[in-house]
Predict the structure.
Amino acid sequence: KYLKEDNIKITIWSDVKVGTGLAASTSLVVSLINGLDKRYSIQRARRLLAQEAFELERLHLNQDGGWQDQYSTVIGGINFMEFRSKGNLIHPIKLKPNTIRELEESLILCNTGIQHNSGNIHKDQNKNLSKENIINQVKENKDLSYAMREDLLQGNLTQFANKMDHAWHLKRNFSEKISSKKLDSIYSLAKEAGALGGKLLGAGGGGFFLFFVP
């Protein structure tokens, strides 16, 4: 689609390090594709942009992972995402202004200072999906996501935060690489300091915690 004889110099700079769980690599891929599209006057729907970024990362570069980073980066905003074999569904969540303000005031990013390799975590997690107890916990985590969506829509942020806490304790069981003694210590300190719940962003193993603090 692009002209081979057209020489383009691309310079990349970011204050977000690799392995933070903030979807920095996907944001770069999306920005690069979108920039080239603009350069060559290619019109691409947002879903197709997410698809292109997914195929580049997951298929061509063989990076393990899901779809959430691509859709989050391309679409933006607050969404409820359902990933299915027959197609992905993205539902925008329209929250009340007061709920959005309270979320903005209550959500805190905490840098653990630990970098992670999400691919290794995903591979280990996929191996564990053959275990019945892990399958049951994954299903419970999925059910929690629907309940958390309802909490957001109704403005019940305390219940939302409590479910975040429960979801994190479920997720950390999916793979021994998701958490560690140091990460567990950070989480415990945050809870003692007033956080109601939280989770590691991305695959886990390091990067940033997202805490809900009233």
User: Anything to note?
Assistant: The beta strands are 79-84, 87-92, 107-111, 197-200, 208-212.
